[in-house]
Amino acid sequence: MLKRLRPLLLSLCAASLLAPLPALAAAKPKAANEAAFPAAVLWRVDKAGMKSSWLFGTAHVTDPAVTTLSAPIQKAFDSSDRIVTEIRLDFPMMMALAKSMLMPEGQQLADLIGAERYKKLLPELEARSYPEVAARRMKPWAAAMQLMVPKHQAGQAPLDLLLAKMAIESEREYLGLETVEEQIAVFEDIPQDKQISLLNSLIDQQPQLDGYYKQLVALYVKRDITGMLKFADKDEVNLPDADKAFFDNWKDKTLLADRNVRMDERMQELLAKGNSFIAVGTLHLPGKDGLIERLRARGYTLTPIFDTKK
Length: 310
Known about the structure:
By secondary structure, this protein is α/β, with parallel strands linked by helices. Helix content is 53%, strand content 11%.
């Protein structure tokens, strides 16, 4: 059952991968006096009277270069009392996600995007282990999320799912910062015409995106967070002019800023307990509204841990 549902997990994991996607929003230019973000995805979180915790920036992809943890990250993970991901990845979550991704009986995705584009979409979904029988009633946003996940080899799982698996197998406390309903709402709130526009653009421009994903993974492996932000300046995917402003705002506010506020608030109890390992998408970390600065504003000391991949 888990193997059949893995594509649904990949869909959900694509949410944060959307953050740097230039089709949806260009990165804000960095001020001349603004320091580069440290080349670190693991941060120690300290505050007087509390045990240290860890904040880890993930990439929601299956590439072994990403999913193989470096020694410092593995040590932090192994020594923590509880593991936290954006949402708790479990069977009830998968069922809720699967249900939310489908249109009512009688409605077909091909009717919304046209037979020609639907025919182009099917092999792209198949390459991501998503069969046609499951694709017929997919909502446009759900199909778009699939196309924002890099193609992967059978049996590979994204980093967040591997963290969840290790947490459960070690019988430690395992929690999520958000509910699946909250993450689904991020996409359900996109008007259907905008969903269709995004999906059409992604279908038509898949060849360009293959190269984009490889470059993004390479930057993550180098821990070049500043490079990831700059990379968002490039126009890898073109949306119709009428839709660009909408997705700029959606990405900056709904996908990142609003969720950063929510994650920051919900981290506080976990940080107070100490010895927590909290994993979120890397693009939630930098910036004046990012989690690093939000936690510093609350009086925490954030120390970057510079690691070397195995």
